[in-house]
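We now fix the convention by which a protein and its fold are recorded. The integers have meaning only within a learned vocabulary of local backbone shapes. A record is reproduced here so that you can trace the correspondence yourselves:
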Amino acid sequence: MLDIERIVDLAKEYQQHLPELPPPLPFPAGNEIAGWIDHTLLKPEATAQQITVLCQEAVQYHFASVCVNPVNVALAYSLLKDTHVRVCSVLSFPLGADAPTMKAFQTLSCIQAGATEIDMVMNIGALKGGDYGLVYNDIHAVVENAHNQKAIVKVILEMVLLNPFEKILACLLCQEAGADFVKTSTGFSSGGATVEDVTLMFRVIGRTMKIKAAGGIKTYSDAKSMIYAGASRIGASAGVKIVQEAVM
């Protein structure tokens, strides 16, 4: 049974004394960084032709996945099903304000269309309003549906909207709910990934989960900074540029 009081107390403890940073992750050499990148196109005006190009680039450069809106999952899967590239879909994006039942249903819908990775937006308002049980249940329902279908879940926290205590607590709730990753940002709010936030996340979750840094990562230098801070996945629409800079 979920013990909210224990998690809140731990968050308060971490706010005073964060755990030490784990050792840094092995850094990918040269174009190996492509395998750490979710090649992303989430603009509302994205066309089928643009999604096709995204998938072609993902195969050419060996990205980890393409990250697309739910409506584009079936197309991406049809183009990538015989390749190494996975299909990632965002869920309740970019606000996170859908009902938990809708998020759980959309998880299955995306997976049935071909997604094997789900990037869900946390219920930000519930966290800030103190309804921590709702935040947990919201994440856990998505995780349960995804894991039953052998898909993974990354939870977008939208760190720019949270204070330090909320950032720590959000990470702990994701950990308790069984998510695979915590993710910094949608890229659609007032700020994106920062080294400070990734470092904080890494100190809170250690090696129990992974971190995806996304939002405003446009260069190899940006990506490198996030990986050194603790990220093991990068979400970026500038993936091709990042890889090209990595091998220069």
